[in-house]
Design a protein that fits this description.
Layout: H1 8-17, E1 18-28, E2 37-48, E3 55-58, E4 63-69, E5 72-74, E6 79-80, E7 83-86, E8 92-102, E9 109-114, E10 121-126, E11 147-155, E12 159-162, E13 175-179, E14 193-196, E15 199-207, E16 210-218, H2 228-246, E17 255-260, E18 267-268, E19 273-277, H3 288-304, E20 312-313, H4 319-336, H5 345-360, H6 376-380, H7 386-402, H8 404-418, E21 422-423, H9 425-436, H10 441-447, E22 455-462, E23 468-476, E24 493-503, E25 506-517, E26 521-523, E27 535-538, E28 547-548, H11 552-561, H12 568-583, H13 589-599, H14 606-623, H15 626-646, H16 652-664, H17 668-679, H18 691-703, H19 709-718, H20 722-734, H21 738-750, H22 756-766, H23 772-775, H24 778-792, H25 795-804, H26 813-826, H27 830-857
Parallel strand pairs: 1-11, 16-17, 17-19, 20-21, 22-28
Antiparallel strand pairs: 1-2, 2-8, 3-7, 4-5, 4-8, 6-7, 9-10, 10-14, 11-13, 12-14, 15-16, 18-19, 22-23, 23-26, 24-25, 24-27
């Protein structure tokens, strides 16, 4: 049987047969402190269009105690391969399933966490994509919506939160019972349960007669770091903005945001009970970019209450309808909501989201935004840069194409027509066509139903007086990577061309021309006869989704003066273009380093600064000529130390440069500086060497052999928290000894005892770019183990191992050959093949970039 991997055809057949009315779910969590299993009782009522037909319900559990269909006991042998066979359905059916389900430590299903600070147990659920079936028997597909009513037995001292408002608990003694009211009709994957001695802070959103209770929860050990006022402020701005734009009141009875431990994603849009990773409760000083990222996540999940929860895709091929819309919504809300702290959110979007999309769109696994999802394994690897970032970029372009007023008019009609239902792509496009008067079928075919990316380049000639004689925008469609499905296509683009002059070191826009680009060459007669400006920037204001190149003269000016742009967005666009050129082998890694060292001192946007810092380190570790790499790293480390000392005391830039130095320090003097900052012997005015920065510094000292096990244990004694234990595990794995690598490998590959977060920390420490010789023996071990990992571990855990331990730092033909041999011999499942092929593409790209950097050094 297909078991846990539900296919689209099976889901369609089941949806045609069934209409699900309601679930009543009883969970006994009274013994959670002992772990193991919990008793789950599900009663589900549903109708069947064909009496006498058979179907199945999904359940992932160690054992089933009782199955009763329409009053008749079914033998427990009907439960096999994560399904319960249901024969001979009636027109109206009632099914009762009693099972013992398992707590997890993988972040899937019902995750159990013990806080080392207070020794208390904390639970939360994570169900997307198919993991509600780990907690209760369910028809696990998004189009079989129902009302869900939870009854929970738990320790009396606990807080229990679900989708419906929390009732007063019943009972006496050591346990209590919480009986939650039924939800509206929602999909199983957005139901939720959070339980444990969490602490809450409360407020309400009020708009006229509307009053929505708001709650924020976290563990007591994090309460001192929680900043509820800032979180409520962003939340209320989102309520105001989305309700005005959507013209549909918030659809649920309350809105809780729960910061939970060891959460695999950034957050999850459970209806009325959003779960977020508790790293968003900042234990130490962070830059404003971290607060902006948290605000974006808060708004993303709030937008999902309408787009995803109220109206849900019919099947996972329209996952982008959820994620692309929420990603676009978070950015536009930050940009436009009154009082927003981050009105330049489109700068962050261009610098981070679109960079992610461009990278994903050049992998062999690239796919149309509207992806072909044949089964659950397909969708589980499809939460990627296409689904989120490219889709949101294309939505932004669609807004420019139809106009924002028409776009939101269509969205309002869509919500009103499909509230509490399921939709396909055509439902949204139909509403937008009606609102805008535009035919969107050809637009959809070009943008949503094809893969790949276009490149826009300027082509110009000048006369002897320096005036533009001809100007055109050239569009190309690079061939899709080997293995990708489909063909590259040219698309229609709406772009702006920005003209910038250099005045006293400042690059100021003097004119802007907006036009449509179609086909391989589009003439721009408006520029003919003008004096050639210092910089000509295609796709100014970032209206379309395309890779952009600068002409030779503009690139020269930008290289010397990138920080001179007076506005943040054109700087971000040029940074993104330069990074993309580096990845594509059009700009040598050493030249990207030169650009960064020139531009970063004048870059005010801290989010851009930190993105470029990460990219420089990646370029040096992976794209630089190995014979020059150490020289480049030394230059980067020296620049980081100087920037740290020169930065304004207490500023975000100071903290960012401290973190850079904490990742790249290499000379005895630099490592002595890290040691001095840790032990207090060295003080840099304004720099708070707090808990998280201490772990950054210690991590580098461990990786270079300067910190031993005793130093790690001493730091853990200072910070014996869950986060501290994760950092300590990473430091141990980072030590430059064969014994440390062997222990780390065994703990991840040979054992399944690590929690999801500790495992991720060990993998991160294991993969050190300075330790390639120590890592070399593990390439063969990786390919020997990877298929077994895929077959024996949960999706989240296996994905961490497969992507994290691939020999990506062993950049050479040997790694490519070993990968190809494994792909041929192993016959991997499609989802596993995709992960390996993506990793292989990174090595292949790095080899090409290294050759370009080597040639640049020979010039």
């Amino acid at each position: 049987m297909p078991g846990t991997n539900l296919t689209r055809d099976e889901a369609r057949t089941r949806a045609d047969l069934l209409h699900v009315d309601a679930y009543e779910i009883e969970l006994d969590l009274s013994s959670a402190r002992e772990g193991g299993t919990f008793r789950s009782t599900t009663v589900v009522r549903f109708t069947a269009t064909t009496p006498g037909a058979a179907t199945f319900i999904d359940l992932v559990a160690p054992s089933v105690e009782e199955i009763v269909l329409n009053g008749v006991r079914i033998d427990n042998s009907a439960f096999a391969d994560s399904r319960i066979a249901l024969p001979d359905l009636a027109a109206e059916n009632e099914l009762r399933v009693v099972a013992d389900c398992a707590y997890t430590n993988t972040g899937e299903g019902l995750h159990l966490f013990v806080d080392p600070v207070d020794g208390e147990t904390y639970l939360y659920t994570q169900f997307e994509v198919p993991d509600a079936r780990r907690v209760f028997a369910s028809f696990e597909q998004p189009d079989l919506k129902a009302a869900f009513a939870f009854t929970v037995t738990a320790p009396a001292s606990w807080v229990v939160v679900s989708n419906s408002p929390t009732p007063e608990p019943e009972g006496e003694g050591d346990t209590r019972v919480w009986r939650f009211a039924p939800t509206g009709r929602i999909s199983s994957y957005i139901t939720a349960l959070v339980a444990g001695p969490y602490v809450g802070v409360f407020d309400s959103y009020e708009n006229g007669e509307q009053k929505v209770p708001l709650g924020i929860y976290c563990r007591p050990s994090l309460r001192e770091f929680l900043d509820p006022e800032a979180i409520f402020e962003v939340t209320k701005q989102g309520f105001d903005y989305f309700q005005e734009k959507f013209d549909f009141p918030y659809p649920f009875a309350k809105y809780d945001q729960l910061f939970v431990p060891e959460f695999n994603a950034g957050a999850m849009e459970n209806a009325g009970a959003v779960t977020l990773r508790d790293q968003y409760v900042f234990r130490s000083k962070v830059t404003d970019a971290a607060y902006e990222a948290r605000a974006a996540t808060i708004l993303h999940e709030l937008a999902h209450m309408w787009f995803g929860d109220l109206v849900t895709m019919e099947w996972w091929n329209d996952l982008w309808l959820n994620e692309s819309f929420a990603t676009y919504a978070e950015a536009v809300c930050q940009a436009e909501a009154p009082g927003s702290r981050w009105p330049n959110s489109w700068t962050t979007f261009a610098n981070q989201m679109k960079t992610w999309a461009y990278r994903q769109d050049q992998l062999p696994s690239t796919h149309p935004i509207m992806a072909e999802i044949n089964d659950l394994e397909d969708v589980q690897v499809n939460f990627d840069g296409i689904t989120y970032a490219k889709g949101a970029s294309v939505l932004k372009q669609l807004v420019a194409y139809v106009g924002q007023d028409a776009f939101f008019e269509g969205v309002r009609a869509y919500f009103k027509q499909h509230a509490w239902g399921n939709t396909r792509l055509g439902d949204l496009l139909g509403a937008l066509e009606k609102a805008s008067g535009r035919d969107l079928k050809s637009w959809s075919a070009a943008w949503l139903e094809t893969a790949g990316i276009n490149v826009l380049r300027p082509a110009l000639t000048l006369n002897t007086d320096g005036e533009i004689e001809s100007f055109a925008v050239l569009q190309s469609a690079p061939a899709l990577p080997a293995g990708a499905k489909g063909e590259a296509v040219l698309r229609p683009h709406r772009i702006a061309v920005g003209l910038y002059e250099l005045n006293d070191g400042a690059l100021v826009r003097t004119d802007r021309i907006e036009l449509d680009v179609n086909g391989p060459r589009t003439e721009v007669p408006e520029l003919v006869g003008r004096h050639r400006p210092a910089v000509i920037l295609l796709n100014d204001d970032d209206l379309t989704y395309a890779k952009v190149r600068l002409d030779e003269d503009s690139l020269a000016v930008v290289t010397e003066n990138l920080g001179g742009f007076t506005e943040a967005l054109p700087r971000a666009l040029c940074w993104a273009s330069a990074w993309d050129m580096t990845r594509d082998g059009e700009l040598a890694a050493r030249d990207y380093l030169t650009l960064a060292l020139s531009g970063l001192p004048r870059e005010s946007d801290i989010g851009v600064v930190q993105s470029v810092q990460r990219q420089v380190k990646l370029a040096l570790d992976v794209y630089a000529d190995p014979d020059w790499r150490e020289q480049g790293l030394a230059r980067w480390a020296e620049a980081a130390e100087q920037a740290l000392r020169d930065a304004e005391p207490g500023s975000d830039h100071q903290l960012a440069w401290a973190r850079v130095l904490g990742s790249v320090a290499r000379t005895d003097g630099q490592l002595d500086l890290l040691t001095g900052l840790l032990d207090g012997g060295t003080v840099i005015p304004g720099l708070a060497v707090d808990t998280e920065l201490r772990w950054v510094l210690l991590g580098r000292l461990a990786a270079t052999g300067r910190a031993d096990e005793a130093a790690i244990e001493a730091e853990l004694a200072r910070d014996n928290t869950a986060a501290g234990q994760e950092h300590a595990a990473s430091c141990r794995a980072a030590r430059p000894t064969a014994e440390a690598k062997a222990a780390a490998w065994a703990s991840v590959v040979d054992s399944d005892e690590l929690t999801n977060y500790v495992q991720a920390a060990v993998i991160g420490g294991f993969q050190q770019a300075d330790q390639r010789e120590l890592l070399a023996p593990y390439s063969e071990k990786y390919f020997a183990a990877v298929k077994g990992v895929w077959e024996s571990r949960s999706h989240e855990i296996s994905q961490q191992i497969i992507g994290g331990l691939y020999p990506a730092l062993l950049i050479g033909q040997g790694t490519l050959d070993a990968t190809d041999a494994w792909l041929t011999a192993a016959e991997p499942a499609p989802a596993l093949r995709r992960q390996i092929v993506e990793a292989r593409a990174g090595v292949e790209r790095a080899l090409k970039a290294q050759a370009v950097d080597r040639a640049a050094g020979e010039r």
